[in-house]
Fold:
Amino acid sequence: WGKMAEPSNTTPVPSISDHTLLRCVGKGSYGEVWLARNVIGAYRAIKIIYRKTFSDDRPFDREFEGIQKFEPISRTHPGLVAILHIGINQNAGCFYYVMEVADDLESGQAINSETYVARTLSSEITRRGRIPFDESLQIGLSLTSALGHLHQHGLIHRDIKPSNIIFVNGSAK
Structure:
């Protein structure tokens, strides 16, 4: 989820079908993560990847191909973040994917869009300090199981770090 960030001042916020983008809640080298609400009022996270971020098409295309391969696998293991939709906005020069939203650091799935902070392993370590052994073991086992599942399907995760490990309904993904 990266660090809390505002969207690039030079990039207009693209339109995402059937979703209202509420605010940018993370920014990394490959895109922005937005807290959004869909047409039935459910909160979602939307990652937007812009072509202009890259010096050439290769990494942009690789990311798009990777998310296409991951999408059907994403809902087959409880330790993977569920991808709910992938879209392209040609006018904005981006693709995006809609995924389940991380718990709020303080209130879990009782999300307030104005105060939302994603509960990540990084934010947990910052808030709590050392994570107790039993809990660390459970998180580690959950994540290695999810990664093993990915590998069985011929996929790898190329950016595993505490800020990319989120909690959804209290479970690490």
